[in-house]
């Protein structure tokens, strides 16, 4: 029946308006908050989303995310297609058992959040049989992609879009095959290590490892806690986690060895960069974490911020339903946490560096102070030495002066002695001369022998002459005259006896 349609608009009318008598179905435009007809999809590729009202509200955030990404750079050509050529149409599936009034009320609530297009119909669709038979709808959400001509571009792009998001544009099966090559090397390594992981587009898989058992245990406990959380169940998400090397420690070495071998095989620059990012995590002392959505690896992360992100799930859980989904909300919080930790580490490094600089500065100041003290001590020693030298020099000078003075005193004394001796010599000489003169006088006045006999020997004071004076001669002169005659020439006469 689909092959008989003229275009995508006709196709949509067949699904929602099987007979001309059936009242026209309106399409709600979440962007303009207005009702429109199916003509809005003329010449457009349409990504249909079929889901029951029981699960549609959990997918609205993700559909809004894809709608938002289609409006970014709308004229950009990707693989020959432009984003502006694609529209998302949500078609809720209503069962006969559902209460139309309640469905309508619920839809009115959803309209506040929905950004894409949605069929505004609150009863069982007339084309429900075709949807089930031709599009293989079984109750689980599906996402067929139609061309402008109404042909089937992809029977169900659900897993493709949920795994890869806007990267899967234009949402063909071949696009999924191309994308799977981006991470095939990673899953091939795990397969070679006999790590069996069942990949599903709606399943979130945490794979982690490292040498810090504390962080590994904390992450495992946190993941076990949230995987059964009401929010995760409402979002229809499944969370699984695997610790690399838990049962086989040798698998850790083989894992990194295989990654290095893959890197050496040069699989392309984009894959090389991803391998380098993964190998970089190997050096994290706290450990590493890989988060994938199906086969699409979403995060190559560090253990510490990832563990804290999962442990803080109660803080950001509401955004899982309000925004684009679990992985995008988690990555947003993880990136903020990573930035916070890196900023803290940088702050600590700067503080440590500042501390080291201060320590170095203090050390330099101490060294400078010690140097100055040594210089001061050396200066004082030199000053002391100089003082001692000056004292020694002064002492020597004083000694020299004393010696000189002593010498001068001795010279003076010697001079005085010499002068005294000379004086004595002169006195002696004078005495000798006076004695000589006296002898000559005595010889000139020599008395008679008789008189000599009569003359008494009178000694003269030895202190004056040192000799015995000649005896007095008495004769005819008076005694006074005789004495004066004897001492004449030595002393002046004591009286005028002449």
Automatic annotation (TrEMBL):
Pfam families given in the database record: SEO_C
Gene field: SEO-F1_2
InterPro entries tied to this protein: SEO_C (IPR027944), SEOA (IPR039299)
Compositionally biased spans, kind Basic and acidic residues: 433-459
Protein name, per record: Sieve element occlusion
Signal peptide: none
Disordered, as annotated region: 433-472
Sieve element occlusion C-terminal domain ranges (all copies): 268-346
């Amino acid at each position: 029946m689909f092959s008989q349609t003229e275009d995508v608009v006709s196709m949509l009318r067949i699904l929602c308006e099987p007979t001309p008598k059936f009242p026209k179905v309106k399409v709600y435009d979440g962007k303009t908050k207005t009702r429109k007809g199916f003509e809005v999809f003329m010449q457009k590729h349409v990504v249909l989303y079929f889901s029951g009202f029981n699960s549609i509200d959990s997918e609205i955030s993700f559909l809004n995310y894809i709608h938002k990404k289609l409006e970014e750079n709308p004229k950009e050509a990707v693989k020959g297609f432009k984003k502006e050529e694609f529209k998302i149409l949500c078609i809720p599936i209503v069962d006969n058992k559902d209460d139309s009034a309640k469905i309508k009320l619920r839809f009115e609530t959803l309209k506040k959040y929905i950004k894409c297009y949605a069929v505004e119909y609150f009863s069982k669709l007339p084309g429900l049989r075709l949807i089930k038979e031709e599009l293989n709808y079984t109750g689980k959400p599906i996402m067929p992609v139609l061309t402008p001509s109404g042909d089937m571009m992809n029977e169900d792009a659900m897993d493709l879009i949920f795994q890869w998001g806007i990267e899967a544009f234009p949402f063909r099966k071949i696009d999924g095959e191309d994308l799977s090559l981006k991470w095939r090397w990673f899953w091939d390594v795990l397969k070679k290590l006999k790590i069996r992981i069942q990949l599903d587009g709606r399943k979130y898989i945490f794979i982690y490892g490292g040498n810090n058992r504390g962080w590994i245990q904390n992450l495992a406990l946190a993941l076990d806690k949230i995987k059964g959380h009401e929010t995760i169940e409402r979002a229809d998400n499944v969370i699984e986690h695997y610790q690399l090397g838990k049962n086989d420690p040798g698998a850790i070495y083989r894992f990194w060895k295989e990654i290095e071998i893959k890197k050496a095989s040069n699989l392309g620059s984009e894959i090389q960069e991803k391998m380098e990012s993964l190998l970089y995590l190997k050096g994290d002392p706290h450990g590493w974490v890989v988060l994938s959505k199906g086969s699409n690896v979403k995060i190559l992360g560090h253990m510490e911020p990832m563990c804290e992100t999962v442990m803080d799930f109660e803080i950001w859980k509401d955004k899982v339903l309000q925004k684009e989904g679990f992985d995008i909300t988690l990555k947003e919080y993880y990136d903020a946490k990573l930035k916070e930790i890196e900023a803290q580490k940088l702050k600590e490094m700067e503080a440590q560096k500042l501390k080291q600089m201060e320590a170095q500065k203090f050390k330099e100041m101490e060294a400078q102070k010690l140097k100055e003290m040594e210089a001061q001590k050396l200066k004082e020693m030199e000053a002391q030495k100089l003082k001692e030298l000056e004292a020694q020099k002064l002492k020597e000078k004083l000694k020299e002066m004393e010696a000189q003075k002593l010498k001068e005193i001795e010279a003076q004394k010697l001079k005085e002695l010499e002068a005294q001796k000379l004086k004595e010599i002169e006195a002696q000489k004078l005495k000798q001369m006076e004695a000589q003169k006296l002898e000559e006088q005595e010889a000139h006045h020599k008395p008679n022998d008789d008189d000599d006999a009569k003359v008494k020997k009178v000694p003269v004071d030895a202190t004056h002459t040192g000799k015995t004076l000649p005896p007095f001669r008495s004769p005819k002169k008076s005694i006074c005259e005789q004495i004066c005659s004897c001492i004449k020439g030595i002393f002046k006469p004591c009286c005028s006896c002449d």
